[in-house]
Amino acid sequence: MGEIFDIPEEFARPLKGPGARMRVLASDRAGNIALRLALIIPGLILLGVGAVDLFAVHNAHNRLQSVAEAGALAAAPALASGEDAARTRAAAFVADAMLEWRNAPGFEGAYEVVRQGSEPAIRIRLSGHRPSLLGNMLPPGGWNFSGEAAATSQGLVSTDKDQARS
């Protein structure tokens, strides 16, 4: 009976005993590659999406830091006109830069005048947030990142964050 339809002998004869069918299926190696790929491919796709997401967050963090640095440098000459003028100039510069950024993350900015040695400096702290590509699951709520820079009329100065790294 098994030779006519080219059916393996195990399937052609009746199976007896508990678990006999499972033993036959467990010993059958046909289709193993398809099963393995079905288990492996979703994990590889998830790793790929995670890598793309991390790359995008890293780029967004770098760009937010650049905006903070450029804003501090742009606002520093306004320190000669007063603290309010410098803060207003910094906020306007950052707002313009964020409008030019396609798909910019949500952000909050803090603009303050601090003393750097004997002269005033404008410090800009930007906090950014963007949702995760994985539906805000990893990390929960999305990604948070920040950029901080300070500048005097002489140029950029180190911030508390920079001093902590050294």
What features would you highlight for this structure?
166 residues; four-stranded antiparallel beta sheet; alpha+beta; 4 strands; 5 helices; rod-shaped
Structure, described:
By secondary structure, the chain is an alpha+beta fold. The protein has one domain (26-165). Helices cover 48% and strands 22% of the residues. The protein has 5 helices and 4 strands. The protein has helices spanning 9-12, 20-27, 32-75, 83-100, 160-165, and strands at 106-116, 119-130, 143-152, 155-157. Strands 1-2-3-4 form a 4-stranded antiparallel sheet, with helices on one face. Strand 1 (106-116) and strand 2 (119-130) form a beta hairpin. The longest helix has 44 residues, at 32-75. The radius of gyration is 31 Å and the shape is rod-shaped. The chain starts with 8 loop residues before the first helix and ends with a helix.
| Quantity of strands, as a count | 4
Shape: rod-shaped
The main β sheet shows up as: 4 strands, antiparallel
Tally of individual domains: 1
Supply the number of helical segments. 5
Structural class, by secondary structure, is: alpha+beta
Over the alpha carbons, how many angstroms does the gyration radius reach?
31 Å
Mean pLDDT: 86
- Order the strands across the largest sheet as they lie in space: 1-2-3-4
Binned strand content: 15-25%
Along the chain, the helix and strand elements come as HHHHEEEEH
Task: List the uncertain runs.
Answer: none
The N- and C-terminal alpha carbons lie at a distance of 81 Å
Q: Oligomeric state of the chains?
A: single chain
Helix proportion range = 40-55%
